[in-house]
Amino acid sequence: MTAEELQAIISAGLRCEHIEVTGDGRHWSAVIVSPEFDGKRAIQRHQRVYATLGSRMHTDEVHALSMKTHTPAEWAQAGKA
Which Pfam families does its entry note (predicted)? Predict the structure, then answer.
């Protein structure tokens, strides 16, 4: 899997205002900004992203995914918007 493919999978299942994915084919890092994260704790945000990946997490297609998840307001406050 490529970073672009993983990014497309996440974007297809989660409304993203910004997404960056990097990795080596098994171990990935992602920065994800979504309005769907409003009012959710970090664990809930991560679970939402994992839900978009479905069985890919269980079949080892995506071995590890480190995430930084932000709401649009958090992203703007950090000066990233």
Answer: BolA
